[in-house]
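Input.
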Amino acid sequence: MAAGLRLTIDGLDIIDNNRPAIFIFNHQSGIDPIILCRLLRKDIVGVAKIELKLHPVIGPLLSFGDTLFVDRDNKQSKVDVLDDANLVLSHTLSLAMSPEGTRSKRSELGQFRSGAFRLARRSNRPIVPIIILNSAKVLPPRSLNMKPGNVRIKVLPPIYPKDWADKHPNEMAATMH
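Output.
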């Protein structure tokens, strides 16, 4: 990859063997979406905050990729995005989203929101967790200076809605965290 970025990937076969799916990932750096594009490659739609749609460079790129934009402060927007995401998943496309709902400010995970888990139950699609390690060292938050480095990625086995049918999506989000 560009700028001396090296990826070490564990579980790459899980991605193609479990589509369509909801791929969830921890979000530490602005480079994470590019890493996900490299990993997931095809038949994928992302979910992003509405503020990115207005960015002069990133906005058009995300729009070109049919990204679903959500206004995190608007309950109806969240409902509409879940409806749109369910439609995406019904057409054999996968979805990528951060259950934290935003980029982490520190190295530890933020609280998981329940949207991905509600969507998994509604669409009956598996959740495939992707752990991205060290991306914030390659491209620190609020920086445009990429540093060479190795980013390690762990793709975990899928989690099917039937395996947690007795749990509320909020509870599953907390358990997954």
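The radius of gyration is 16 Å.
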